[in-house]
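Case study 2.
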Amino acid sequence: MDNQNNSIQIQDLEKANRIFRKKLERCETERRQLETDIATKEFLLKKVICELENSQKDLEQRSQELENTLKSLHTMQAQMIQSEKMSALGQMVAGIAHEINNPVSFIYGNLSHITQYINDLMQLIELYHRYFPNPPTEIQTERKAIDLEFLEKDVTKVLDSMNSGTERIRDIVLSLRNFSRLDESEFKAVDIHEGIDNTLMILQHRLKATDKSPEIQVIKNYGNLPNVECYAGQINQVFMNILVNAIDALEELSAKRIDRKIKDNPRITIRTSVVDSQWVQIAIADNGLGIPESIKKQIFNPFFTTKPVGKGTGMGMAISYQIITEKHCGKLEFLSTLGEGTEFIVQIPIQHQVCEII
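Prediction:
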């Protein structure tokens, strides 16, 4: 009986064992499937994360590219507006110079004839004095009334003043015409000194003394420069921007009424020299307040200005930098010491070069 019971128990155990093994096999299969699913999901998740990271990087890169493009568009727009303004200004200045030149040339051309006529009349009067020393009373009275002796002396001075004045106007007109060469599309060999002098002539009114500021002295230390191949109008524009900034700095110094030594009266020093056989250098320095260290890196940035609203656009030095570095393959740098002044240094090749695009 016991053996039979044992046999039944053994059979039940074997059956239970088989069932357990089957369950265990199913669990193992399910475990493996689950591991496979988890691994697949982990792979997909990592792939998604990687794609998201790449997408984020692409978005950041595209965002930076769009930002750079927007800045470039703003800069280009400002440069186009500035160029259009300078072109319109050049046309207007050239037109005004032409209109002034016509009547001035007429006056200047006739002054020599008038001078000759008056000299002839003076000689005729002298002959009358010599051969008719005692004219009638009416003539003597009129002679005293017009003060003939003074008239004879002063008329020559008046003619000389008129001649000097018309020559001055002719020089100004010539400077305006030379400065307005903004539409020249080709490199030409030009006299750099002539461009500087023309620019100074146009700015002459800002160099004179006023009730708010003393006269600004201009010191020229010109070297023996050869003619330089450049866009004459654009180079003149650079000189204008630098000189205007120097004058503004000196006027700001005068406005703040800072006590300085006599030797430090407001002045602008212009030095030109040949760097080597291929380059020339133009340095324009002022003894103003100087540029603070905190803004030196922004001087050539578009739209950056320290001037009051309405007085500066912040494009002058940015466009000057582009003209020198991109249009003429040159260099535009500056040195500044706070409280002592600023010097802008322009270096351009003597002969036209093709700029390397970086």
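Strands lie at 188-190, 217-221, 228-230, 267-274, 279-286, 331-337, 341-349.
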